[in-house]
Automatic annotation (TrEMBL):
This is Phosphate acetyltransferase. PANTHER family: PHOSPHATE ACETYLTRANSFERASE. Keywords: Acyltransferase, Transferase. Pathway: Metabolic intermediate biosynthesis; acetyl-CoA biosynthesis; acetyl-CoA from acetate: step 2/2.
Length: 469
């Protein structure tokens, strides 16, 4: 019942004790029994630069409690700025009953700068009479930490098995350890059991619950070789070639997914995009009606999550392919809980510009509108007109997408790749991807410069895709 919960600032304990009976108190940081953290533990985590761990635990506990009750999340006055972070990550309106003028001004000014709504009320009586009205001020904030928590929950519900072929990379082993500890996804590692165990022991990792398969010597090789040969013999492949290829770890992983022994695959930490995708295109293949595979990124901005595509695969899409990328990206958005509003990006908005590049976007937009997307897609749109409501009202006032877009389709790979990296590096946004779109089963590619957290997120994404496909 998150929609009926709120963040409460008060300096009167009677306010807490006399809340309506249908509202339960939730204490993120307090020296009371039942609080998520004591004040001492919270200070210890903050001093050790573990604020994210503290916030994640609070989000997880709040989500559990909010399933059954409306919650008043009680602020701790000794952690002013942290209160704002907690309220933002829980996406709750702040109701301030404090009589202190400093607190009223502090929370009003700082909360609004972070996109939160703050309502200053005089007393509990006013709260009871205006609670429903106050709850309507709630903003739709999705922070990177909140979204990551959502991914873990969705992945657990998917009950997927993901294969990781690059067990010789310590980043893969560290990511596998995090996933196994969370119990969110079942994993298969490829490699020799003794080598993986030795490397895990050297790194201090517990991988005892992971399934390990040696791609050079296992029970599946004959089955996979015959299957690959049947799939590719019309293209000239010989059985001997298939028998050799299935011992390659990327081909073997792909065959595990194709044959249903794994739900999806994550690779690319030490192999190229082409090496990751080629076996999938040869065996798993594209979904019916999809003209091209594309790569989308989930961009976790400060207060929202948006989709950028294509940032990874198709250099110069045709107008038909660009419309298809829009359709695939809309599905990706829906898979991860977003209501897609798709902007076909250009250097021009509406009828303000002309030229072949603008006409290309107009034709692609028409094709996308003629699909199931209909009025949820619009273009051509400049980025500011797509993203900013104030600009949209001036440039495209009648559009149902302008100013509300959360899926951004770039005209080519140059634009998409440059833009996602620019946003990631200059704004501190978390970029999750690339998420490969259009395949019958999920195979996702990592950047060779990926961090452990990038691998973890990609495993979670792949597990969720496996359920949605």
């Amino acid at each position: 019942m998150c929609e009926n919960s709120f963040y409460l600032i008060t300096d009167n304990q009677n306010d807490i004790q006399n809340l309506p009976t249908n509202i339960e108190c939730f204490y993120p940081i307090c020296d009371k029994n039942g609080a998520v953290f004591s004040e001492e533990k919270a200070k210890e985590l903050l001093l050790n630069n573990q604020k994210n761990e503290l916030l994640k635990s609070i989000i997880e506990e709040f989500d559990k409690k909010a399933q059954n009750s409306a919650l008043a999340v009680v602020a701790n006055e000794n952690f002013c700025f942290l209160n704002l972070e907690i309220a933002r990550n829980l996406n709750l309106p702040i109701i301030n009953l404090s009589k202190c003028e400093f607190k009223k001004t502090f929370f009003k000014n700082n909360a609004e700068n972070k996109g939160l709504s703050v309502i200053n009320l005089t007393d509990l009586k006013e709260l009871n009479s205006k609670l429903e009205e106050c709850l309507k001020t709630k903003k739709n904030i999705i922070t990177p930490l909140n979204f990551e928590t959502r991914l873990y929950k969705m992945a657990k519900n998917a009950n997927s098995t993901i294969v990781l072929p690059e067990s010789d990379d310590e980043r893969i082993l560290k990511a596998a350890c995090i996933i196994l500890k969370s119990k969110a996804v079942n994993l298969i590692l490829l490699g020799k059991n003794d080598e993986i165990s030795a490397n895990a022991q050297k790194l201090g990792l517990n991988l005892k619950d992971v399934k390990i398969i040696d791609p050079q010597n296992n029970e599946y090789l004959e089955e996979f070789a015959n299957t690959l040969y049947e799939l590719r013999k019309a293209k000239g492949m010989k059985l001997e070639e298939a028998q050799k290829l299935v011992k390659d770890r990327t081909y073997f992983s792909t065959m595990l997914v194709y044959s249903g022994y794994a739900s999806g695959m994550v690779s690319g930490a030490s192999t190229t995009t082409a090496e990751t995708i080629r076996p999938a295109l040869q065996t798993i293949k594209m979904k019916p009606g999809v003209s091209t595979v594309s790569g989308a990124f989930l961009m976790c901005l400060e207060n929202e999550v948006v989709v950028f595509a294509d940032c990874a695969i198709t250099p110069n899409p045709t107008e038909e392919q660009l419309a298809g990328i829009a359709i695939s990206s809309a599905k990706t958005a829906r898979d991860f809980g977003l209501d897609p509003k798709i902007a076909m990006l250009s250097y021009s908005t509406g009828e303000s510009g002309s030229g072949e590049d603008v006409d290309f976007i107009k034709r692609a937009t028409k094709l996308a509108k003629d699909s199931e997307l209909k009025d949820s897609v619009d273009g051509p749109l400049q980025f500011d007109a797509a993203f900013d409501e104030i600009v949209a009202k001036k440039k495209m006032p009648n559009s149902k997408v302008a100013g509300r877009a959360n899926v951004f389709i770039f005209p080519n790979l140059n634009c998409g790749n440059i833009c996602y990296k620019a946003v990631q590096r200059t704004s501190g946004a978390v970029a999750i991807g690339p998420i490969l779109q259009g395949l019958k089963k999920p195979v996702n590619d990592l950047s060779r410069g990926c961090l452990v957290e990038d691998i973890v997120n990609t495993i979670l994404i792949t597990a969720i895709q496996a359920k949605e496909i």
